[in-house]
Amino acid sequence: MLFVSLLCVAAVAVPAVSAASSEPMAVAEPATDDTHNYSQQTASPNISVTVGGTVLPAGETITTTNDPALTLTITADEPIEIISVRVDGETRRSYVPNSTTFAETTTLDLDAGTHDLAIVVRTADRTTTYAATVTEDSGAPLMTFESPISAGFVGPNGTYEQLNDTYTLNKSTVELRGRIHDQSNVEQVIIEHEYRYQYGTEPRDTDTRIEITEPNQTISRTLRLGPTQPDVGSGVNSLTIELRDEFGHVREYETTLRVEDTDPPNISVLKQYPVATRSAVRIDAEATDRVGLASVGLRIGPANGSGQQYLYTERQPTKQAISKVITPTVDVFDGTRNITLIATDQAGRTTTRELSVNYTELVTPQIQFNRSLSGSVDDRTVQAAGTVSEGQITRVRIETLTPDGETIDINSVYSGGVTENLTFRERLDAGSYPAAVRVRVLDVTGTEHTRRLALSQSEPADPLTRPTEQSADRGIDTMSETTLGAVESSDPLEPSSSNQSSLLGGLLSFISRHALAIGVLTAAGIGGAAFRQRRG
User: Fold this and answer.
1) What phi-psi label fits residue 465: left (phi over 0), alpha (psi between -120 and 50 degrees) or beta?
2) pLDDT number for residue 507
3) How far apart are CA 391 and CA 394, in angstroms?
4) How far are the Cα atoms of 143, 145, 152, 153 from residue 161, in angstroms, in the given order?
5) 522 has a pLDDT exceeding 60
6) Among candidate residues 307, 313, 311, 309, the one with its CA nearest the CA of residue 294
7) Per-residue pLDDT tens for 446-470?
8) How open is the CA angle 36-37-40, to the nearest 5 degrees?
C-alpha cells in the first residue's frame, strides 16, 4: 500500500514540474531509417581541368595546338557516380568511378576552331557541370595580300587563292600590305627581298630582310624593287614572306616580281624667280619616274638642240632616285633666254621641257591703286593708296603733279633692300583739281616703272576726315586730317616716315588758308588784354 501511494504522488507531481519549466522538453520520434532521414548537406565536387598542360578555370578560354591532352582531377564528399566529358554537346568520354576521387588524362580529338568543353559530374546528392572554351590552332597562319600583289579568299565559298609565281609591275616602289588570319597569336613575320642584277659587266645582288615581331592583324611595309634588265637577262626580284605562330606553325609565301619601265619621266617646273644680285634666273623643277631616274640636266637652248649640263646622274639601278628636285641658276644677259630641262630614266626614255626665261618680266612690279582709299581730302590735299607687288623692288616714291607735269609734293614710301610686295597710303599737297598722282617704282635692274592716277575733288578718300573732341574744344576747324597708318612692307628695313611731312603740310595749308582770320583773332585777343590792363 505504501508503494502504491508513492506512485500516485509522483504522477500528480510531474505536471507541476512541466508547467514551471521555461523551455518544453523535446521528445524525438523513433526513426525507422537513419540513412535517409539524417543525411548531411554536402559541398559541390571540386573539378580541376588541365588542357595541353595549362590549367583551364571554368568559364575561361584557352587556345591550344593539335589534339591537346585533357587531365581531369575531381574530388567529392561522397562517391562520384558518373563523369561525362562533352565537346560541343557530344559525349566524348564517360566514367563511373564509384569513388570520392577521380584522376584521368586523355586526348581531346578536336578539329581546328573553337569548341565548347563541358564536364558533367553526378554524385548521390547533386549534379555539377563545368564549362569552358577550347580553341584548337592546328594550322599555319594565312595572309591575304592587297594589290599590286593580290591573294586571299575569293568567290562565294571563300576559296583561298595563293600568290602567283610571278607579278609584273610598272613601278619600283610598292607597298606590301596584308591581313593575317590565325586561331592563335602570330609571333613573327619575316619579309626577305633579293634583287639580282648586272652593273656594267659585273653580276650583283642586294638582300633586304624585314622582321616584324608581335604584328597586329595587318602589316604594311614599303619595298624598293629593282628594274628588269631584258638586254642582259637580269633584274629579278625574289620575295619571301614567312609567318610563325606561338605554337611553331610556319607558312611561307614565295613569288617573283618583275619591274618593267613603260612610261617616260615627268618634269614639273615649280617656280622661277630672279637672282637679285645679278641678271640671272633660278629655276626650281622636279623630275620623277615610276622606276628610276638615270640623269637630269639642262641645255641652254631649244629642246631640239644638242648637249646638256648634268645636274644628277646615277647608273646603278638600286640607287636611282624616283624623284629629284633641281635648282639651276641661268644667266640672262639679253632679257630673254631659252633653256631646256632633260630627264632620262633607267630604260633610256628621255623627256624634255623647254622654257623661255625672261628676267625683265620677273623683276617688273605691278602697281595698283586702291580706289576706295584714294581721293581728295580737302581743296589742297589728296590721299593716294595702293600696292606694289610681284616684282623685285628697291625704291618706291609717290608725287603730285601740276598740269604741266611739274612736281608739287613727293613722299618716299620705301628704299633699301629688295622686297617683292608692299602697300602705300600717303597724303600729299595738290595745286588744283583734277589732281595728278604718280607712283615711281625702281626694280633691281635700275629700271623705273610709273603709273598715274587723276583725282577729282568729287572723289573723296575713304575714310575722309572726321571731327575730334580736342579740335572742337579749342575752336579749331573740326574737319582736321585723320592720322594715317604705317606703310606695310615685307622688307626688314624701316620705311621712311611720310606721315609727319604730310601732317606738317596739312597744318601749313590750314594756316595759309585762314591767315586773315587768325590775324583778326590774335589782334582782338591782344587788344582785349591791353584794355583789361588799363582798366585794372
Assistant:
1) beta
2) 46
3) 10
4) 10, 10, 5, 6
5) no
6) 313
7) 899 999 999 988 766 665 443 333 3
8) 85
Q: Are 141 and 245 in contact (CB under 8 A)?
A: yes
How far, in Å, CA of 413 to CA of 398, rounded?
7
Distances (CA, A) of 432 to 111, 502, 513: 105, 17, 14
- Residue 399: predicted pLDDT: 97
In the block, cell 575730334 appears at 468
User: 498: exposed, middle or buried (C-beta count within 10 Å: 0-12, 13-18, 19+)?
Assistant: buried
3-state secondary structure of 250: strand
Share of the chain above pLDDT 90, in %: 62
**Which grid coordinates are listed for 10?**
509522483
- Tell me the HSE value of 101 on the side-chain side, using a 13 A CA sphere: 1
Give the lowest-confidence range in 17-31, 219-233, 477-491: 477-491
Return the C-alpha cell found at 92: 566524348
CB 307 within 8 A of CB 342: no
Q: Reduced to 3 states, what is the DSSP secondary structure of residue 34? A: helix
Tell me which of 481 and 105 has the higher pLDDT.
105
| Number of other CB atoms surrounding residue 232 within 10 Å | 10
Express each pLDDT in 149-184 by its tens digit: 888 888 888 888 889 999 999 999 999 999 999 989
Burial group, residue 143, by CB count within 10 angstroms (0-12, 13-18, 19+)? buried
Please give the grid coordinates belonging to residue 60: 575561361
- In this prediction, residue 233 carries a pLDDT of 85
Rounded Cα distance between 347 and 268, Å, is: 20
d(CA 459, CA 433): 11
| pLDDT value at 203 more than 50 | yes
Which residue would you say has higher pLDDT here, 480 or 144? 144
Tell me the residue type at 486: A
- Report residue 58 as a C-alpha cell: 571554368
Phi, psi of 313 (to 5 degrees): -145, 140
Q: Is the dihedral of CA 141, 146, 149, 153 positive or negative?
A: positive
Q: Which of 56, 106, 61 has the alpha carbon at shortest distance from 85?
A: 106
Q: What is the DSSP string of 123-139?
A: ESS-EEEEEEEEEE--S
Gap between the Cα atoms of 152 and 508, Å rounded: 90
DSSP state of 150: -
What secondary structure does DSSP assign to 424-440, as a single string? EEEEEE-SSSSEEEEEE
CB-based contact 174:148 (threshold 8 Å): yes
Sign of CA dihedral 459, 461, 462, 465: negative
What per-residue confidence (pLDDT) applies to 133? 96
Q: End-to-end distance of the chain based on CA atoms, in angstroms?
A: 166
Q: Which residues contact residue 11 at a Cβ distance below 8 angstroms, ignoring those fewer than 6 apart?
A: none
pLDDT in tens, 376-390: 999 899 999 999 998
Q: To which residue does cell 631640239 refer?
A: 304
pTM attached to this predicted model: 0.62
